[in-house]
Each structure stands twice: as structure tokens, then as C-alpha cells.
Specification:
about 120 residues, single chain, two-stranded antiparallel sheet, about 55% helix, 4 helices, alpha+beta
Amino acid sequence: MFNCRVNMIERESIIKKTGKVSQEVIYGITSVAYTPTVAQNLLYWTRQHWGIENKLHYRRDVTLREDATRMTRTHQAQVVATLNNFVVALATYLGFSNLASARRFFQAKFDALIFSSS
């Protein structure tokens, strides 16, 4: 027999730049067996999921504008996604905590970086 449970999470977020507060309620369905710590585990798993979304996907979607790219071939999209992952990893490796500032840094110094190696 399949047991499923419905869970509800109420969350509040604040946009740092504007101070705007938003509240939302989300619902989930799980087959995790009930234990006294199941609510804490579900909250932890949800936070882990959104941590990935906020750390990687937001950077790719917003800073690198990946979602705005329209491609007609699957392989093109896979190549762009791979290149974007490389850019994020390289910026992190070089010590940039903010991908947008890394883009501005390299855009401003592009000529110097290219022509200094010749």
C-alpha cells in the first residue's frame, strides 16, 4: 500500500535591494514514513533543493541569461549549459563570490587579457 503525506511550508522572503516582503504557502506530497523528525527532514530537504536553485540556477538564469536564449536544437542548449557551468565554476575558482561582478571585471579588461599574452 502506498502511503503519502501532504506537507505545507509557509515562507517569507525579503528582497534585499528593495526591502519588499513576500509571503507564500507551498504544498508538497511525500511518501516518507512518519517519524517524530519527519517535519525537520522535509524542511531540510526543501532548503537543500532551493540552495541549489539559488546558487547555480539563479546565476545561470539571471546573470548569464540562459532562460532568455532561444535555440532550436537540443545540442546547442546542452553546449550553452555546459559553457555556463564552466563560467560559473571558473569565476568561483578565481575567487569571485558574485558572478555579475566577475562578468564586469572581465568585460572591462578583455582587451588587456587578450593582448597581454602576445
